[in-house]
């Protein structure tokens, strides 16, 4: 339902985000064929675009206080602020002592790490990322339960495994906090293998830890997956509704125009309605399978 100019602007914004992320990665690599001044110039260009985009959105907003409280706009602001703060800190501390310069360098490194927030700017243009954000916001209780179950299991199995393995010569279980790492990688089924049991009883405890981790992860993740599907279909329905409204506006505007144009517009309108009905039926099927019909109605 957007105009050609709006779609072009959105595409350019996505391109600048991807270029900025790639540039951020290339800056950390020493490449003989890629000069650092070129990467710096590309960084300045991306920052100029992000700044202009944010300022234009702010100027066009009807309610600027609400605009600044929006999560997406806060992410946009946090993505560009570290660059300007870094320039300010480096300009103000140019003639300081070596110790102060070292402290300033640490601050600058932390600020540069915040440039990774630019990846979240893609959420403005991606239905999947927005669905993920909605899912996390709606499933905070399930995520909290998942972390609680993992914490309890890690505490129990790490303690048991440490007392089983501590008497073995050359054991890698040197302390309970060290066993926490083993229990975390085992319950999440990662299993790096840097810490492993040697005794038979220890291997039995490890098996129980892995099995418990699979069960603990499976229960909340199934709920989160159903909620993600419902959020994704809801956003798709909203997009179809926007296209339908735009097609209806075009129909009303061109009622006195050529009949061929009206037929084409009616076809567009019919397709948008069918898309919305199709997505609505898929959403009902998804929510019915998860027992969440009452949530959406």
TrEMBL record:
Q: What membrane topology does the UniProt entry give?
A: Multi-pass membrane protein
Pfam short name (any one): Ion_trans
Q: What are the protein's GO molecular function terms?
A: voltage-gated potassium channel activity
Coiled-coil residues: none
- Name one process (GO BP) from the record: action potential
Membrane-spanning intervals of the chain: 12-35, 41-59, 71-92, 143-164, 204-224
Gene Ontology cellular-component annotations? voltage-gated potassium channel complex
The record places domain Ion transport at: 7-232
SUPFAM superfamilies recorded: Voltage-gated potassium channels
The places in or outside the cell where this protein is found are: Cell membrane
Matches recorded under InterPro entries = Ion_trans_dom, K_chnl_volt-dep_Kv, VG_K_chnl, Volt_channel_dom_sf
What are the protein's UniProt keywords? Cell membrane, Ion channel, Ion transport, Membrane, Potassium, Potassium channel, Potassium transport, Transmembrane, Transmembrane helix, Transport, Voltage-gated channel
Name of the protein in its database record: KCNV1 protein
């Amino acid at each position: 339902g957007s105009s050609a100019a709006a779609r072009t602007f959105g595409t350019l914004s996505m391109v600048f985000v991807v270029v900025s992320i790639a540039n951020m990665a290339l800056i950390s690599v020493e490449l003989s064929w890629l000069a650092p001044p070129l990467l710096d110039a590309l960084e300045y260009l991306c920052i100029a675009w992000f700044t202009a985009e944010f300022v234009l959105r702010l100027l066009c907003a009807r309610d600027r206080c609400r605009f600044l409280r929006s999560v997406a706009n806060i992410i946009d602001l946090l993505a560009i602020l570290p660059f300007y703060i870094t320039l300010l800190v480096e300009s103000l501390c140019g003639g300081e002592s070596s110790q102060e310069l070292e402290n300033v360098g640490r601050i600058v490194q932390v600020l540069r790490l915040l440039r990774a927030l630019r990846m979240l700017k893609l959420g403005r243009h991606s239905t999947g990322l927005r669905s993920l954000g909605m899912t996390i916001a709606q499933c905070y209780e399930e995520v909290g339960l998942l972390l609680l179950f993992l914490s309890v299991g890690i505490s129990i199995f790490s303690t048991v495994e440490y007392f089983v393995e501590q008497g073995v010569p050359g054991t890698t279980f040197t302390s309970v906090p060290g066993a926490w790492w083993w229990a975390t990688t085992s319950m999440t089924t990662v299993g790096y293998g840097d810490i492993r049991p040697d005794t038979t009883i220890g291997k039995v405890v490890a098996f129980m830890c892995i099995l418990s981790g699979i069960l603990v992860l499976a229960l909340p993740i199934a709920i989160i997956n159903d909620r993600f599907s419902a959020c994704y279909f809801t956003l798709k329905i909203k997009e179809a509704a926007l296209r339908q409204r735009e097609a209806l506006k075009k129909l009303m505007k061109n009622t006195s125009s050529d009949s061929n144009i009206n037929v084409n517009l009616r076809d567009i309108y019919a397709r948008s309605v069918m898309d919305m009905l199709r997505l609505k039926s898929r959403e009902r099927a998804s929510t019915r399978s998860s027992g969440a019909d009452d949530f959406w109605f």
